[in-house]
Design a protein that fits this description.
By secondary structure, the protein is α+β, with helices and mostly antiparallel strands. The chain is built from 20 helices and 11 strands. Helix 2 runs parallel beside helix 6. The model has no long low-confidence stretch (mean pLDDT 88).
Length: 477
């Protein structure tokens, strides 16, 4: 049964809080400035209004989860500390004589919230920032950060063995006799097999799949299909502990196994939208969806800054479709530099190694073909190294995408400097709030962790902005 959030404290609790707790503590500032009452509205359908045992108020449970992600505590640890930590009790609005939730209550509440509801909770916090006038709505920073899966990495041989063990255990629970007979048969056939280890593991796995198919147990079908995907290499399953995790690369030489958090951040430092991606997904392909999330929430921006991994015609057009300017470095700018032909953005011309300037340009395949004077080229001492056999003048191609990037180098450098803010936010998420590694297994559970951790960091940012604004001197009238 739904229980209302306690709006007021007893005189005794209020006196203790004022007496023992520091007035300037960040948690007390959050309690003062952030309204969490929207949680009851978002979770109303999860409770009966009139039947059942009284439950803990949803807002209190969310505040306890907030503490867990704020201090990077496990459910067991935060439930234990809530029993005797006066600061935690004050923040979650539990009186000294109130019972507090145990860790299993937190697990059930978080599971009932689910990822979609947690995303809405994050949106409600962003909306509060908008109502308080904290969102700037100017330059939007976009980037992704890596989250390592909560699972040991397995090679193919270990993975096949683990898959067979899991399938055998499930089979034994349904039909122990047939499973044991199959196990004995496999042991006899493959104990002295001369094949290499991996080939033997693959044959063992295929033999087991054939035996399961012959037994015809429909209860094993889902697990059987997962094992078959591992054997065939299709579907991307590379770990049984966390089958949703995928291999990706932090950079060209550093692989990782897990997920990515893809975020869009306002110039104020408040993250407005988040996506959860598998490790093998490229965040650049999901930029249009992320910007659509921002627009649906009523968030506006004048430019979008991202690294060169987002450089594509589709992404630039998606940004322009929202009336914003793309501030993305070109992937091909380095290639142009190697040609020794320097582009002059102000004049929109090229200068060759012989210090001659292009005399004109003509449209060509989504860009322009810049050409030099035939007279200059024919009289140039470098022409044998510069021109082809049938060329009478030099031509240089420049795409619209690269041209736009080169013409706005100064503002682009400033934008890329501002983009470091989102990297600092990612560092904060990982160093202080545990987002470098997944707490849970499965993409939907990791999504819950991501949304609630970003909620915590947004709340911190909102309070810091409010306090910073309040501390500024008021100009004399």
């Amino acid at each position: 049964m739904l229980t209302r959030f306690p709006d007021s404290r007893s005189l005794w609790d209020d006196w203790l809080i004022r007496k023992l707790l520091p007035e300037n503590h960040i948690l007390l500032a959050i309690d003062q400035h952030i309204d969490f009452s929207f949680v009851e509205e978002e979770t109303r359908d999860l409770y009966s209004l009139h039947h059942g045992r009284p439950a803990y108020a949803p807002e209190q449970l969310l505040r306890v989860l907030f503490l867990a992600y704020f201090y990077n505590l496990s459910d067991v640890r935060v439930a234990e500390e809530l029993r005797y930590n006066l600061l935690y009790r004050a923040f979650a609005h539990f009186s000294l004589d109130d019972d507090t939730p145990d860790d299993s209550t937190l697990v059930v509440f978080r599971r009932r919230l689910g990822p979609e509801r947690c995303a809405r909770l994050l949106d409600r916090i962003v909306e509060q920032a908008r109502q308080k006038g904290l969102l700037e709505g100017k330059r939007q920073c976009v980037d992704a950060t890596v989250i390592s899966a909560n699972a040991a990495v397995q090679n193919r041989k270990e993975l096949l063995r683990a898959a067979r063990r899991r399938l055998f255990r499930a089979w034994e629970r349904i039909d122990a006799k047939t499973a044991a007979e199959t196990a004995n048969q496999l042991q006899e056939e493959y104990t002295n097999a001369s094949e290499p280890d991996l080939a033997k593991e693959e044959k063992l796995t295929q033999h087991l799949l054939d035996a399961v198919d012959a037994a015809g147990h429909t209860e094993l079908q889902s697990l059987r299909d997962t094992v078959a995907q591992i054997l065939s290499g299709e579907g991307g399953v590379t770990n049984l502990i966390d089958p949703d995790g995928r291999w990706g690369f932090k950079n060209k030489r550093t692989p990782f196994f897990g997920y990515k958090a893809h975020a869009s951040m306002d110039a104020s430092g408040i993250v407005t939208s988040v996506q959860i991606l598998s490790g093998n997904e490229h965040e650049g392909e999901h930029l249009p969806e992320l910007l659509e999330q921002d627009v649906r929430k009523g968030h506006r921006f004048t430019s979008v800054v991202a690294d060169k991994g987002y450089d594509s015609i589709g992404n630039r057009n998606a940004i322009r479709s929202h009336g914003a300017k793309p501030e993305i470095p070109s992937r091909n700018a380095g290639v142009l530099a190697k040609t020794r032909f320097r582009y002059r953005p102000r004049k929109d011309t090229f200068v060759c190694p012989g210090r001659k300037e292009t005399s004109g340009k003509t449209p060509f395949k989504g860009g322009f073909l810049y050409y030099f004077s035939q007279t200059d080229c024919q009289n140039c001492p470098l022409k044998t190294a510069c021109l082809g056999k049938k060329e009478t003048r030099k031509r240089v191609y420049l795409s619209d995408r690269v041209r736009e990037s080169l013409q706005s180098q100064r503002s682009l450098r400033r934008a890329l400097h501002d983009r470091k803010a989102i990297e600092r936010t990612f560092g904060e998420l990982k160093q202080w709030h545990g987002l470098g590694r997944a707490r849970y297994r499965g993409k939907w559970r990791v999504a819950i962790q991501v949304y609630l951790t970003f909620l915590v960091v947004n709340v911190k940012r909102i309070v810091n902005l409010i306090q910073g604004r309040a501390s500024k001197p008021v100009p004399a009238s």
